[in-house]
Write a structure and sequence with these properties.
Layout (H helix, E strand, L loop, with lengths): L6 E5 L4 H11 L3 E6 L3 H12 L5 E5 L5 H15 L4 E4 L14 H26 L11 E6 L13 H21 L3 E8 L10 H9 L9 H13 L7 E4 L7
Parallel strand pairs: 1-2, 1-4, 2-3, 4-5, 5-6, 6-7
Helix pairs in contact: 1-2, 1-7, 3-4, 4-5
Length: 249
């Protein structure tokens, strides 16, 4: 897919999302950047994108709520008249040790991760299916995000998060089948991309000892993965690890 003059709905206005947004703008895509609380970061991202000669605007939305997802999609269509690409990056990373597990926690986390992926993907894809197909019979593309660990070495004390991200991978494959042949649906499974704030030297050594590449990937690794999935039209239903080899360690 050629990104020039395409419309991207991107969720996630912090850290890696900033790099992804700018790289999309450099390739000529206009953006709508959804945020829940990071208004300043979202506005800054839009300002950077606009400097590359494209349109960009921030939209506040709580993606745990059905009506706000519908309002978000409606806002993008109202502004641009179409949606070509959904990059759904936004997700919490909640720790839930065994003694804290409750049905309420389950519902809260699943609303934020797989349920938001389901309904946002459904509403965005409904718009994409109305697009005219390009020369490769592509009407739109969806990219979700999971986690490298869930099928290999699930994190202890993150059982609900692990299950939620597993559901996103299953949804990716299911939607890829449902939306074929004209809308592709893929998922990126990041590994150690950016070191968390406050990471100790001991913790860093632990991460590197289990990462064959012996380095943090950096935000451009994710941006490059997004670029690949958007450029390559013969890939759908893929779970793409970008993890420095963690899945083979």
């Amino acid at each position: 897919m050629n990104l020039k003059e395409k419309v991207v709905l991107l969720t996630g206005a912090r850290r890696i999302g900033q790099t992804v947004a700018e790289e999309l703008a450099k390739k000529g895509a206009s953006l709508a950047i959804a945020y829940r609380s990071s208004k300043e970061e979202s506005e800054a991202m839009c300002a950077v994108c606009i400097q590359h000669g494209v349109k960009a605007f921030p939209v506040k939305a709580d993606l745990t709520k059905q009506d706000e997802i519908e309002r978000l999609v409606g806002s993008v269509v109202e502004e641009y008249g179409r949606i070509d690409i959904l990059v759904h990056m936004a997700a919490p990373y909640p720790k839930t040790p065994w003694g804290t597990l409750t049905i309420e926690k389950w519902d809260e986390i699943n609303a934020a991760i797989p349920r938001s992926a389901f309904w946002l993907g459904k509403k965005a894809a409904d718009v994409m299916l109305q697009n005219q197909p390009d020369e490769n019979n592509i009407r739109g593309k969806i990219i979700y995000f999971s986690d490298w660990s869930i099928n290999v070495r699930p994190y202890k004390d993150f059982s609900i998060y692990n299950a939620a991200k597993g559901a996103v991978e299953s949804l990716t494959r299911s939607f890829a089948v449902e939306l074929a042949p004209s809308v592709t649906v893929n998922c990126i499974a990041p590994g150690p991309i950016l070191a968390p704030v406050g990471l100790t030297e001991e913790e860093n050594k632990e991460v590197m000892s289990k990462t064959p590449r012996k380095t943090w990937g950096g935000a451009m690794s994710i941006a490059n993965g997004v670029d690949f999935l958007l450029k390559e039209d013969f890939v759908t239903g893929l779970i793409l690890p970008i993890d420095g080899g963690r899945t083979i360690d």
